[in-house]
Amino acid sequence: MKDKIKDELDKMVEDGFMDEKKRDEILKELEQKQLEELDRVQKEVEQKNRLYNEYEDIREEVMLLVDKWFRYFAERLPRQEEVSFDEDSLTRQGAFNRRSVMKSRNLLFGMVKNPREIKPSVKPRFMASILVDVSGSMAGEKLKSARKLLVFYSELFSRVSEAFGYIRFSVDTFSDSVTEIKGYKQDYDSPQRYDFADGTQSTVKVRLMQRLATEGGTNMLDGIKKAAGELNKEVEEYPDYASAFYFVGDGGDTYGNAANIRNFLSMNEAERGFGEHMYSAILLGNESQRRELADIFGEEHTNVAPDLDLLIERSMEKFDEDLEEYLKTKLH
Hints:
This protein is α/β, with parallel strands linked by helices. The protein has helices at about 1-15, 20-30, 40-50, 50-75, 100, 105-110, 140-165, 205-210, 220-235, 260-265, 285-295, 310-330, and strands at about 80-85, 115-120, 125-135, 165-175, 180, 195, 200, 240-250, 280-285, 300-305.
């Protein structure tokens, strides 16, 4: 049982739900306990880390979908060949003609002497901003679904980025005000505790689990402006990245901003408007709720689904369309 408890503690530290100091304190206490007391320590660990157990349950639930869509994108993402050279790449005939090295027929017919290493790779430079409605109307099952959707997005984006290229993403929530969950420069998988604007310190995973709580009205405009502003800053720094904005909610704006939001989205100018980003709105709901969002985001940018699996499928179809558009215009 001791080994089981130790394994659980190590996993919590690895995923950022416990710091190393706290783990070491519990382990020290554990070594001093008699066998009959181990069960009590186990229950204490589980109680203190209820949030971690909730996260693990969600992660296990969505991992089949993460695996499915990771394989899907792994098959579709284009591959480009990068040729590496070492010091032996020079011969008596002089330096390699690098243009000829990059031509597959020259490699095939041996017209270039001894290219040392060819590494297949893909770099789909892509950035995404995810904005989630946590107003009062999202309470209950809708909020649970939103949390699952965010864990799915985060696990998939992190995995695609690690395996194939560079995907930068941020997560914000909004109701009456906007709360940052993950910034572009923060690592979802890191156990590091980041400083946030509200004065708190947290790993991204813990913040995602803690801060998705419903309250207040639906002030969509401030959330969209904040997401667009951050996207525009990122585009300035990474101009060769495609950019997309994903809105997750269950209806319209309750602050009377629908017309202002439409106008803002239509402005491609980065300083005063939304910028040149792809965007879409998705929600778990019915047709009447879809019409509310479509009135703001447009029919072609709005999808609704009655269950989470279908919602993820439709959101991934949109993500696929965005990648396809990017690959047509930005990759050489």
